[in-house]
Amino acid sequence: MLYAVEDFAHLSKGQWVADDATNKMVNDLIHNYKIKLNDLQGALRREKFTITVGDELPAGILKLAKVYIAKKRKLKVGDKMAGRHGNKGIVARIVRHEDMPFFEDGTPVDIVLNPLGVPSRMNIGQIYETVLGWAGMNLGRKFATPIFDGASLDEINALTDEAGVPRFGHTHLYDGGTGERFHQAATVGVIYMLKLGHM
């Protein structure tokens, strides 16, 4: 006795009764059922896909093919860059490595940020990242400092002393053009900067 529609899925064509005409009708019925079952299952799969993914095809379009092309672009003047703390800006000038400000040992810096961008954003996180990034690079460690439960000044000073980094990152740099030392110490460190993708 068959109690559910699913029971038909296990049926196969064969000799059901002694009468050939009746047997043919049963086999045709099973064959037609399996065709209809496949059609219904396909329709349900398509409907489920449309609900989960969404139907983005315009009217009259049957298939849509998307091709994504990856392209490497070198940084250029006018590109927008940002850090992790809302500190963003535009690339104003690109110079040769030897023209960048450099340390006493001759190591040039990679990027020079406008100092007015620090107080305007009123976000101390970028200073934390700069100083702790340099200390972490020397110590081979990573740091996580939450907003309301961050590292104290004493903890940061202890880490910078351990890493051999100047306190607050204050370092005297030298002009890449003239070779003379700048009058004031600059805050130097390691930060994460990225080029914004929508540009």
TrEMBL record:
MF annotations from Gene Ontology: DNA binding; DNA-directed RNA polymerase activity; ribonucleoside binding
EC id: 2.7.7.6
DNA-directed RNA polymerase subunit 2 hybrid-binding domain boundaries: 53-199
Keywords assigned: DNA-directed RNA polymerase, Nucleotidyltransferase, Transcription, Transferase
Stored Pfam families: RNA_pol_Rpb2_6
Gene3D superfamilies: DNA-directed RNA polymerase, subunit 2, domain 6
Superkingdom, taxonomy of origin: Eukaryota
Cellular component, GO annotation: DNA-directed RNA polymerase complex
InterPro entries: DNA-dir_RNA_pol_su2, DNA-dir_RNAP_su2_dom, DNA-dir_RNAP_su2_hyb_sf, RNA_pol_bsu_CS
GO BP terms: DNA-templated transcription
PANTHER family assigned: DNA-DIRECTED RNA POLYMERASE I SUBUNIT 2
Family: Belongs to the RNA polymerase beta chain family.
Name of the protein in question: DNA-directed RNA polymerase
Annotated organism of origin: Daphnia sinensis
